[in-house]
C-alpha cells in the first residue's frame, strides 16, 4: 500500500513520541508490523547462500602477551583476518564468563524497566555524553526503521557519574567498560604490529581515546521476513568489540555472500571500522554487516565502539604516513571523528558506504 511522505512522517513521529520503542509495540500485542518498519531490502531478498561455506576466523589470544612465538602467530592471524574479512572472533581474551553474563542481564534489566522509568532516559541528543536510550538513531533519515531499541553511553574519556546510570546496569557497565578498555589496548597493540608498526602506534594516535557502549535489544518480531534488526552498514569507529547472545542473526557480507557469524560461547566478535580502514589506507577492511529480525527474541547484544563520535575535538585522522609510498598514495582526506559521525547520522543506514564521502 502506498504511503505518502507526510503520512510516513506522521507515523514516525507518533512512534517516536511514545518513547517506548519497538518493545512498546510488541508489548501492545501486535500481529503485523507497522509500515515504517517494512524494508524493501530485508532478508527475503538477501538470503544466505547455503551452498557456500565460509567460517569466520576464531583467534585464540591466550599466551599472546608472554610467548613470543604465539604472539607472532596471533599477529599474523589478526593481519590476515583484518585484510580479508574485517571480522574475527577472539577467545581466551581474559574477560570472565560471569562478567559477560552480568552484562547481558544488565541490558535486559534496563529494557524491561517500568515504562515510566525508562521513558526518562529517552533522548535523541547523541552528543550529550549522558546515558540515553532511543529506537533507531537514523529514524527520520533511513528508508525503513529497524526492529531494535538501543541504549548509548560514552564511557571514555569522560564517563557519566555512577548515579547517572540506570540501576539495572550501573555496576556492570562500569566494570565492563574497564574490561573493554584493557582488551582494546591489547587489540590495538596487536593490530599495530600487524601493520608493521610499533605496538604503541595506534594507541598513541588516539584510537583508544573514546569508548561508546551500545546495548541493543531486538524484540521478537511477528513478521521478521519484512524487516531487519539492523540494516546493512559498516561501523564508523576504529574498532568494535561485540558481545552477542545465543539467538544469533548477525551476518557479514564476505565475497558477495551473506555469512552468519555464529554464537560461540565466551567469544567476542571483533569488527574493523571505517576509521581504521581510513588510517590504514585500505589495508584493513571495514566490512558491511547486518542483523536479521527473528521470531524468538529478545536478542541482546552489546557493542563497544572505540571512537570519539560527537565529541568536540580538532584532532584529525588520515592515512598513516609510514604506510604510504609512491605506489600507495593516500586514498582519503583527513577528517575528525565528529565530522564522520555527523555525516553518517545525516545519511542514515541507506546501504551505501559513508567512507566514500572522505575519498580523495
Automatic annotation (TrEMBL):
Residues 207-309 form the Fe2OG dioxygenase domain. Keywords: Iron, Metal-binding, Oxidoreductase. It holds the Pfam family 2OG-FeII_Oxy. It comes from the Eukaryota. InterPro entries: DIOX_N, IPNS-like_FE2OG_OXY, IPNS-like_sf, Oxoglu/Fe-dep_dioxygenase_dom. The keyword Iron applies. One of its GO terms (molecular function) is metal ion binding. Belongs to the iron/ascorbate-dependent oxidoreductase family. This is 1-aminocyclopropane-1-carboxylate oxidase homolog 1 isoform X1. It comes from Spinacia oleracea (Spinach).
Amino acid at each position: 500500500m502506498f504511503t505518502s511522505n507526510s503520512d510516513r512522517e506522521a507515523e514516525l513521529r507518533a512512534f517516536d513520541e511514545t518513547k517506548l520503542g519497538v518493545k512498546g509495540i510488541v508489548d501492545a500485542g501486535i500481529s503485523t508490523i507497522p509500515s515504517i518498519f517494512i524494508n524493501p531490502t530485508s532478508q527475503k531478498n538477501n538470503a544466505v547462500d547455503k551452498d557456500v561455506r565460509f567460517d569466520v576466523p576464531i583467534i585464540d589470544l591466550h599466551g599472546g602477551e608472554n610467548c613470543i612465538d604465539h604472539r607472532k602467530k596471533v599477529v599474523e592471524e589478526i593481519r590476515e583476518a583484518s585484510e580479508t574479512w574485517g571480522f574475527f572472533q577472539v577467545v581466551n581474551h581474559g574477560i570472565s564468563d560471569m562478567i559477560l553474563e552480568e552484562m547481558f542481564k544488565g541490558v535486559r534489566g534496563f529494557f524491561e524497566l517500568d515504562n515510566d522509568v525508562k521513558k526518562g532516559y529517552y533522548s535523541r541528543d547523541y552528543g550529550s555524553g549522558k546515558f540515553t536510550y532511543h529506537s533507531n538513531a537514523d529514524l527520520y533519515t533511513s528508508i525503513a526503521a529497524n526492529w531494535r531499541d538501543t541504549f548509548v553511553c560514552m564511557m571514555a574519556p569522560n564517563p557519566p557519574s555512577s548515579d547517572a546510570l540506570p540501576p539495572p546496569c550501573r555496576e556492570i557497565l562500569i566494570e565492563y567498560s574497564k574490561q573493554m578498555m584493557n582488551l582494546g589496548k591489547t587489540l590495538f597493540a596487536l593490530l599495530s604490529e600487524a601493520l608493521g608498526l610499533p605496538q604503541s602506534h595506534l594507541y598513541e594516535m588516539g584510537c583508544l581515546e573514546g569508548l561508546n557502549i551500545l546495548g541493543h535489544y531486538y524484540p521478537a518480531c511477528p513478521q521478521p521476513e519484512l524487516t531487519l534488526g539492523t540494516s546493512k552498514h559498516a561501523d564508523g569507529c576504529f574498532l568494535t568489540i561485540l558481545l552477542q547472545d545465543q539467538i544469533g542473526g548477525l551476518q557479514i557480507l564476505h565475497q558477495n555472500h551473506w555469512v552468519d557469524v555464529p554464537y560461540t560461547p565466551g567469544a567476542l566478535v571483533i569488527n574493523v571500522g571505517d576509521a581504521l580502514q581510513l588510517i590504514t589506507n585500505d589495508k584493513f577492511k571495514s566490512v558491511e554487516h547486518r542483523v536479521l529480525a527473528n521470531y524468538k527474541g529478545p536478542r541482546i547484544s552489546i557493542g563497544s565502539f572505540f571512537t570519539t563520535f560527537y565529541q568536540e575535538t580538532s584532532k584529525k585522522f588520515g592515512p598513516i604516513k609510514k604506510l604510504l609510498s609512491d605506489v600507495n598514495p593516500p586514498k582519503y582526506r583527513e577528517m575528525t571523528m565528529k565530522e564522520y559521525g555527523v555525516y553518517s547520522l545525516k545519511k542514515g543506514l541507506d546501504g551505501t558506504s559513508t567512507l566514500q564521502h572522505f575519498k580523495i
